[in-house]
Amino acid sequence: MRLLHRRKPKSSPHPWEPSAPLLHWAAGSPWSVGDSFMGTMVFGSTGSGKTSGSMAALCRAMLRAGYGGLFLTVKPEDRQTYTEYVRDTHRLSDLLVFSPDHLLRYNFIADEMTHSRNPVGLVENLTTLIMTVTELGERGSTAGSGGENERYFRLEAMRLCRNALLVLVLSGELVTIPNLHKLIVSAPQSLERIQGGEWQATYCGECLQLADNADKTASQRADFDLALSYFLHEWPALSHRTRSVVQSTLTSTTDMLSRGAARDMLSSPSPNVSPSMMYDGKVMIADFPVLVYRDVGQLIQVILKFMWQRAHARRDTTKNNRPTFIVCDEAQLLLVEEDHRFQAISRSTRTACLYATQSVSGLVDALGSNSEPRVHSLLTNLQTRVCHQQTDVRTVEYMQQLIGRSRSLLMSGNQTRDENWLAPMFGQDNGASSGFSEAWEFELQAGDLNGLAKGGPPHCVTEAIVYQGGRRFPNGRTWLKARIPQEPRRA
Ligand SMILES: Nc1ncnc2c1ncn2[C@@H]1O[C@H](COP(=O)(O)OP(=O)(O)OP(=O)(O)O)[C@@H](O)[C@H]1O
Ligand SMILES: [Mg+2]
After folding, report:
1. Which of 69-83, 372-386, 398-412 is the most confident on average?
2. Beta-sheet pairing, 461-468 with 479-485
3. Whole-angstrom Cα distance, residue 197 to residue 188?
4. For residue 145, is pLDDT > 70?
5. What is the mean pLDDT of residues 145-173?
6. Which residues line ligand 1 (CB under 6 A)?
7. pLDDT on residue 392
8. Which of the two residues, 314 and 427, has the higher pLDDT score?
């Protein structure tokens, strides 16, 4: 079997045409620009060669073809690894590093305000973003159990967020996370406080009055009346316990966004980075590895990913068709529900999402109980699946079912040996029987996945089973075994 082939520039169509090959899994089996837009998930047990095998090959291929993109980071060494790919593909002049010790800063609210068509659009988009970040905080807690209670509290937190943002936007106050936080915590807590009129002196009360007096369209007036009724009647009438759970669900996120690195990097007064820079070929490493920065690293990178996806979704690819990527190794730590929504439209946005994780079980565990349907929905939309050596039974079964069964003929034979054991040689029947039976067996056996080469010396080659939805490879099958060499390590 031949090793992974590189794209041959001379014989290719324009490098950004969907049919242009980026690499070859084996001779005659290209992975093209169009394939990259359909999304890719790399699976493999720990040390199976995900990062140094297929992820490295796919990242380098996209960089070589001139993609812009965003690298998310989990391990401390990720920045170094991605910088090497960028250097090796002669793209250092496109490299941007988003980290506290570099000068790049972003402002997600300012970015959203530039692109939202109207205040209602802005409120909806920011609500979705804040609820997405809130989802991260709920993982691993009892609130992440996926039950009825959790759904109720989530819906209530979303209502609070939407109403508070609407009031803030219509009031003409600066739309910032600290102001949103202030408005939420100062909202009237009881009907008595409403009757006593004290609420009017609070920040929430001031914003309500400013929004009431501001010029509004008929539709904005109707929305504002709902928000007014919410803060003056519904919110204070909730039971104390419900109100405090709903409020803390939201304020734990707004609080985190208002402090330290999250505030400095994502709410900068003088932002100098935006997703549209990727369309000019910039390649940004979000150097907030989750294993170093923990919750803050997750929060910053999930917001970047969300905003990048939103920008790509509204992008006009007829004006600039440069492909872009979003790459995330150890993706279980950074995947959120919004990702599968984006994946459903990523093809038309010319975005290649490339994720790697150890196993289906690991993904389900990380996304919280009851997340299996969401995991499968995401996987369904990631058409290329690359599976390195695997020991997780769930992933093995998943790949087996994906690839399906094929017919195999089993030959059976039986012979009773009695004293005249030479009889068959002379054409005499001696109680022997034979036959064929037909069986539909999984085409891919567990041993095919367990036994794949994991890389490392002396051969420095990793192996993986590659499956691409709806594709038949020259070997006549829907899958093939690729051999992917590891690039030599740098000293
Ligand atoms: N450039 C390289 N040359 C040779 N061997 C390498 C190279 N990079 C990694 N290895 C070795 O290859 C094997 C696979 O490593 P790799 O880091 O790619 O696995 P992984 O699947 O990403 O693991 P993890 O889940 O721990 O991230 C390991 O034994 C590793 O030490
Ligand atoms: Mg790895």
Report:
1. 69-83
2. antiparallel
3. 10
4. no
5. 89
6. 44, 46-53, 358, 454-456, 460, 486-487, 489
7. 96
8. 314
Within its chain, how far is the Cα of 89 from the centroid? 25
Separation CA 372–CA 158 (nearest Å): 23
Range of the domain at 119: 108-262
Q: Which of 41, 52, 291 to mutate to test the pocket of ligand 1 (most atoms within 8 A of CB)?
A: 52
> Residue 472: what pLDDT?
95
pTM for the complete prediction?
A: 0.90
Q: How far apart are CA 180 and CA 169, in angstroms?
A: 10
Contact 58, 365 (CB under 8 A): no
Same domain? 456 vs 358? yes
pLDDT tens for 424-437 read 555 555 556 666 67
Whether 258 and 141 share a structural domain = yes
Cα 185 to the chain's mean position, in Å?
32
Q: Are residues 112 and 100 in the same domain?
A: no
DSSP per position, 152-174: HHHHHHHHHHHHHHHHHHHHTS-
For residue 343, the number of C-alpha atoms closer than 13 Å in the C-beta half-sphere is: 25
pLDDT at 163: 98
Residues 84 and 117 in one domain: no
Residue ending a domain, choose from 262, 282, 304: 262
Shared domain for 133 and 246, answered yes or no, is yes
Nearest CA to ligand 1 atom 25: 46
Which of 216, 242, 262 corresponds to the end of one domain? 262
Residue nearest to atom 31 of ligand 1 (CA): 456
Ligand at minimal distance from the CA of 48 is 1
Task: For residue 435, tell me if it sits in a domain.
Answer: no
Q: How far is 133 from 303, CA to CA, in rounded Å?
A: 7
CA of 126 to the centre of ligand 2 (A): 33
Peptide bond into 458 cis (omega under 30): yes
Summarised one tens digit per residue, pLDDT across range 29-56 is 999 999 999 999 999 999 999 999 999 9
Same domain, 240 and 328: no
